[in-house]
């Protein structure tokens, strides 16, 4: 059986990776030795898989699965403990009129809101995730980033969402990016680590593939597309590419890594397209919220309305769900 991502040293146990991070030159050679991405083929396959028709019981299953995979998120400067508590209550009980509705996977907040989130979801099984490492830009010294992580973990965060240094990555300083991931993973302790690439700033699919491998080699438990704070976030094509990466990484190491597309996924139809991508690319082992998440809070409202439509035969009114 595949294992969850351990510390980077264990992730590098496979002979193929033994020397990949020995130096900046070795890591560069490894990353630039990865197969180039066929842009036309990647986008065509993503578009083709997006045409699959999912109906009736399969659609009902997909809706409940998607709800269970959401990281319900608030990352605004105006966040308050009251807003976070309300979000936690919605994560635990998304539809107060139907107790069969699944809980979401997690709530995601800034480090200073972790304690309020933990209180709101206590005993429910809903995880608390916290962004860290000077989110969303990542422009801070490493000691500040690590302090950010430790504060969130000390407050009770179950998961940490870090951002890579895109400036270092784009200037070819791959070892710096890798070493920061390793350091953050160590600071996480028992918390799971999601590594955010901000795919909209990486310019090319080849860069997304390289970033995916840096994240996995560094000990990420999840690789994540985006912060949701830029113009281009999760797309079927960039998520497909990351799913191929985790599939290939597990084939070579036996270690399973999760994937989280974030930003721009707003409708049930969108969510189902991504679930088809997961099933057809990585496989059924990833169709679980331990291995796949949606960073898309507004998606939950549409899923709830579509769920009610399947149950009752009619759409709910505009005041059926809360506005986050």
Write the layout of secondary structure elements.
Elements: H1 8-11, H2 24-32, H3 39-49, H4 56-68, E1 71-73, H5 81-92, E2 106-109, H6 114-121, E3 127-131, H7 142-154, E4 159-163, H8 166-170, H9 174-188, E5 192-196, H10 205-217, E6 222-224, H11 236-253, E7 258-260, H12 268-281, H13 297-312
Parallel strand pairs: 1-2, 2-3, 3-4, 4-5, 5-6, 6-7
Helix pairs in contact: 3-11, 4-12, 4-13, 5-6, 7-9, 10-11, 11-12
Which key terms come to mind for this protein?
9% strand, 47% helix, TIM Barrel, alpha/beta
In short:
The chain has 13 helices and 7 strands.
Polypeptide structure, described:
- The protein has 324 residues and is of the alpha/beta class.
- The protein has one domain (8-312): TIM Barrel (Alpha-Beta Barrel).
- The protein is 47% helix and 9% strand.
- The protein is built from 13 helices and 7 strands.
- The chain has helices spanning 8-11, 24-32, 39-49, 56-68, 81-92, 114-121, 142-154, 166-170, 174-188, 205-217, 236-253, 268-281, 297-312; strands spanning 71-73, 106-109, 127-131, 159-163, 192-196, 222-224, 258-260.
- A 7-stranded parallel beta sheet has the order 1-2-3-4-5-6-7.
- Helix 3 packs across helix 11, helix 5 runs parallel beside helix 6 and helix 11 packs parallel to helix 12 (268-281).
- Mean pLDDT is 91; it is low at 6-15.
Mean pLDDT: 91
C-alpha end-to-end distance: 39 Å
Give the number of helices: 13
Tell me the strand order in the biggest sheet: 1-2-3-4-5-6-7
Q: Helicity, in percent?
A: 40-55%
Inertia-based shape: globular
Radius of gyration computed on alpha carbons: 19 Å
Regions with pLDDT < 50 over 5+ consecutive residues? 6-15
- List how many beta strands DSSP finds: 7
Query: Which fold name is given in CATH as the topology?
Result: TIM Barrel
CATH class: Alpha Beta
Which homologous superfamily in CATH is the superfamily?
Aldolase class I
Largest sheet: 7 strands, parallel
> Approximately what portion of the residues adopt beta-strand conformation?
5-15%
- Helices and strands, in N-to-C order? HHHHEHEHEHEHHEHEHEHH
The secondary structure category is alpha/beta
The CATH architecture comes to Alpha-Beta Barrel
How many domain modules? 1
